[in-house]
Every structure is written in structure tokens, then in C-alpha cells.
Fold this protein.
Amino acid sequence: MTAETIIQSLASGLLMGLLYGLIAVGLALIFGLMDVVNFAHGEFLMIAMYATFFLFAYVSIDPLLAAPLVAAGLFVFGALVYLFVVRFAVRAKANAGMVQIFSTFGLAIVMRGLAQFFFTPDYRSIAHSWLGGKTISVAGIFLPEPQLVGALVAIAAFIGLYFFIHRTDFGRALEATREDAGAVALVGIDKNRVFALGWGLGAGLVGLAGAIMAVFFYIYPDVGASFALIAYVTVALGGFGSVFGAFAGGIIVGLVEATTAMILPPSLKSVGVYAVYLLVVFIRPRGLFGSM
Amino acid sequence: MDKDFTSRRRRELIIAAFFAALAATVPLFVKDVYIQNIMVLTLMYAALSQAWNILSGYCGQISLGHALYFGLGAYTTALLFTKFGVLPWFGMLAGGVISAVIAMALGYPCFRLGGHYFSIATIVIAEIALVLFQNWDWAGAALGIDIPIHRDSWLTFQFTRSKLPYFYFALVLACIAWLVTWWLEDSKWGYWWRAVKDNPSAAESLGVDVFNSKMGAAAVSAFLTAIGGSFYAQFVSYIDPESVMGFQFSLLMALPAVLGGIGTLWGPVLGAVILIPLTELTRSYIGGSGRGVDLIVYGLMIVLISLARPQGLVGLFSVSKKAVSR
């Protein structure tokens, strides 16, 4: 193995890792806001990929242009999921944790069923998009364009999110609600509205990721499941609720995955990521950036 | 112990004996193999969910990776039988012991983790095992193991002509899981577990050995789950990593307890009796098209029950209000 191939795979790992961060950040945001783990997160990604596919196949909108539309669509969808499902789950007086897990898990199954019903279980892919299949050579390293653009979008999204949380009224309301949901009600902030917008934002971010994933990944009803698991690990690795943790967690997951693939057979590549998760939480039980 | 409490426990035992006896007579009237198959699965899930409930319901350590122990039970039995000719009965015991030991070995580092960090660790560990089994050529890798049928006999625990032996074994298994829970509920362990679940630091300060309570719950829970896995391997006579160790299966195992009533004695039983027949019937009547309608119905059911009855369905059938709120 030459130094060049090592740099090559680490570079692809880094790009993929930034995308993992973007997939996971919505999960982290929602968790930080209201302590709820969304078990339908992978299915949010799945419908975003389908939306991108259909916009491309029927209206010929390139995924790159479709991304903001898909993100907006997912924003609305996420807010609706909060209003019609999660709002009732968090109200549960008994077993709130289990109710949240299983109501969102049930939702995930419904979404998979609906995808099978309307879109069939067939694998689909987007051919001949602007970025699809193209690579760019930087200093002798070949980078696939979809992943490169995805990584740039992810970085932009994280920067945007940072300013959004710290510089806007809604962002401050979000932060205040996550600190103390009871107290914000006293200053006239409608908790439900903040939560709904938080869910919208979380879903919108995974929508953005889905639009880019659709360019280079197969699209099928169960596609969310494998990415959801990586997203949980990413979020937990960074520390639940920490937005920056999701960013760092994503990069680590991407790099570890690439490293594992160099050492072990490709079918074992996920083992490295899982092992690193265990290693990290055994040393730091609340993840890398979670509050102790 | 006041008298009311003792008589309530005795009443529960009598009710359980009554239902078990009733269940035992059902196959005399129901000859349809398809329905018998559903009954076997229902009893198996009742036992599995009861086992899951010990660690996750009573002790409050939400495991989303119990498929690991189920798979270990299934694989131990199947491998010992196909590779070394060891009878499934010994394989069953071996699988149970191996799982209990592994559960404690994993519990050692994992029980330091709280809440979601613990749950995700359980998912991740089961996934690692899944991937390893998928790549383990000697154990059949991703294709799994076909258990050859010798002849119908209790010795090899194989029956091709009738489902009834499986049915009665599953009934016994469900009864054992119930009895173990019933017995532990009122033992020192049961009180420790509930204390650990409600408030670990308060329990610790009152002299409860929190760490060993969790270890005990994990061992019992994993042992029973593995027995279920061994049974499943014999019942379907074919296993592969994804079907016995997949993440989905971990959730399916927990579901009856969650919908029936987590941390209750009757929750897993009630949940399985309602959920499994509904699942199987929707799958065969409206799932045949392969268009996912069964998934839609099933998923909606989970969402609606968990939102409408967060404390589980068990409260609907309870005579005393007090037992529900506990």
C-alpha cells in the first residue's frame, strides 16, 4: 500500500464523513432540543432521496438545484411529524422514553411501507446528473465530485447552523427552550412552535443530505436503515445533543470507515466504526463533546 | 408482606395456571397448521419479550440489541448439532450459558453508560456480532445454516409431521419465562431492579448493589432469550445472521412488552397475544402483494397503541387501579 493510496482513501473518508455529519446533525439538533431520539431519521433520508429522484426523473431538475426544494419539503414534513406524532409522544406520562422510541419506530415502518407501496421495492439511481460519476483531481488525488460537493454543502450547512443558532431570534429561542422548556413559556415563547420548527430544521438538514446522497447512492425503501445506524453512532460519538459533536463525530466515522476498509475486507468496514464508538464511550461515557 | 399482597400474588399464579391450561387445550380444537404456526410464534415472542422485560422493563436498562443473545442461542444449537452431532437439548443449555456469560462480560463496561449511550452500545455490539457471523465461513457466513432433518423425535427435537410438539415446548418456555419473572418480581432482586430503574444513585446510597443488580438482570435475561433462539433454530430448521441477529429483530422482541406494558408481569404476554397474530394475519392477508400494505398497518398500529396507551395495554384489563399506576 503506497502513501498515495492511503491519502486517497483518507480523503474520500473525510468527504464521506462530512456527509455523515450532515445526515446526523438533524438527529443531534432534535435530541438536544427535547431529548428525543428520532428512530425514523433514516426514513427521513429515504424520502428525501426519493423526492430528489422524482424531481430529476419527471421534472428534470438536477439534484443540485433540487436540494433546497427537497430541504424545504422535508422541513414541512418534519414539522408535521412533530405536530401529529411526537407532540403526543412527549406528553406521555408513563414510559415517555419508550413511547418516543416506538412511536417514531412505528412511523419508520409506516414510511417504509408507503415507499414500497407507491415506489415499489425496486432499486433506483439517478443517471447523468451534473455531478454523477465525475471526479476531480487535486494534487494527484482523485475526488468524486458528488461527495466533494456534498462535503462543501455540509460545511456550509454547519456554518449556517452556527450563525442561525447564535445570531437569530429563533435560534436563541431554540437554545433557550433546550435549556429550560418550562421557563421559556413564562417569557411568551410558544414551546410547541419552537419544537415544531426544531423538527422542521432537523428534517430539512437531513433532506439536504438526502438530495446529495441520491446522486451517487441507490434509492430503495430500506435505504434509510443502514444510514440511520451510522447517524446514531455519529451523534452518540460526538455527544448527544451537541451540534458540533455531530460534525466531529461524522468526520471521525468517515475516517475510521476508510481506515478499516484499508485493513480489513470491505464487508467488515462497519466494524471499525462500531468498535471506535465503544472505545470512546467506555472512556468518555457521554461521548466526545457531551456535557459530563 | 401484608396479606393482600400475598393473596394477590397467589391469585396471579392461579390465573396464569388457568391460561396455560386453556392454551394447552387449544390445539385440540384448532387443527389448522397455519393457525398453529401463529400460536407457536405468539408463545415464543411472549417468552422472548418476557426475557427482554427483565433487563429493560424491571431493571430499566433499555437493550436494543437482544437479537445478539437470540442469535447466539440459535447458532450454538445449530453449530453443535450440525458440526459435532450434539443434541439440541445440550446445545440449548450451552447457548443459554454462553449468552449469560457474554451478557455479563459486555455488561461490565456497558453498565457504566447511561440512557441512550447504553442503548446505542447494545445496538452496536449486536451489529458487530452480526457482521462477524456474516463473515464467518465455518458458521455458514451470510448464507447461514441449514439444519438437516434426521427423523421426528424428541431426542433431536425435530418434527416435520406436526407442529404440536413445538407448540407445547413454546408453551412451556413462555410459562417458565413468566414464572421466573413472577418469582423474581417479589425477590430481593426484583426490589433492587426497580430501585435501580427509578433512581440508581438513591438505590446505591440505600445499600443496593447497583452494578451487580444489572449484571444479574442481564444474565437471566440473556439466558432465557438464548433458549428462545435455540428453540427458533429447531422450529424453522434454517437460520442466517440477518434473520436471527438483525437490529429489526431486537426491536420486534421488545415490542410486545412495550405495547403490553413495560416492567409488568402480564405486559409481554398480553402484547404478544395481541400483536403477533395481528402481524402474521396482516402479513398473509394483505402483505402478499409485496407492496408493503402490511407494513403500513403494522406501523400505524405501533404508533397508535404507543401514543394512546403509553403505560401499555395491560392497564385495560387490570381490576385494581393501584396495580396499574405502579
